[in-house]
Amino acid sequence: MPGSWLPWQRYNELLFIIDTCQGASMYERFYSPNLMALASSQVGEDSLSHQPDLAIGVHLMDKYTFYLLEFLEEVHPASQANMNDLVSVCAHRVSVSPGHHTDLFQRNPGSVLITDFFGSVRKVEITKDTINLTSSVKPSGSGDMQIESLTYVDQLPVAEIIHQKPKQKDWHPPDGFILGLWTLILLVFFQTYGIKHLKHIF
């Protein structure tokens, strides 16, 4: 990634937020300048889920994402909260140890405003009007306008999957099965007859 920063300056500063089990392992190999990373868990730790949605029976997000989002929703464009505040927001509320990597970042995280990364304000217009999306129009050789027909590609061959019969697999004993069977036979033999009858087997 250093080639992306110098000499072409493809990015100025990057913030990585990693919410997964052993998240800190993902930023340990970063070496490019001006990178800052936050992780929900250290190496060897799990990233814990937040409360489940009882209607569908699954967790919708992890604890780290939940508390991080809760904090960021209170940040406004004129906020003076800095990156140290963002780093510490989850440290006392999540049962694992969130990690952060600021060694490659050239500025002091305490002087970097959160709005440097989360300061974009998009203007959204809500409308109830119908918006017609026209298909691409190609001019034909005869001067008439040709409208390209739009088709959708099936993401999965559902019909084939439903009617497909499972293939019969040849059964093979699992690894160590034969060795375990012989061990069991010999153990039963020794318990029954003793070692003096071993010569009758071999």
Automatic annotation (TrEMBL):
The keyword Signal applies. One of its GO terms (molecular function) is GPI-anchor transamidase activity. The chain crosses the membrane at residues 176-195. Keywords: Membrane, Signal, Transmembrane, Transmembrane helix. Gene3D superfamilies: 3.40.50.1460. One of its GO terms (biological process) is attachment of GPI anchor to protein. GO terms for cellular component: GPI-anchor transamidase complex. It comes from the Eukaryota. This is Phosphatidylinositol glycan anchor biosynthesis, class K. It comes from Sinocyclocheilus rhinocerous.
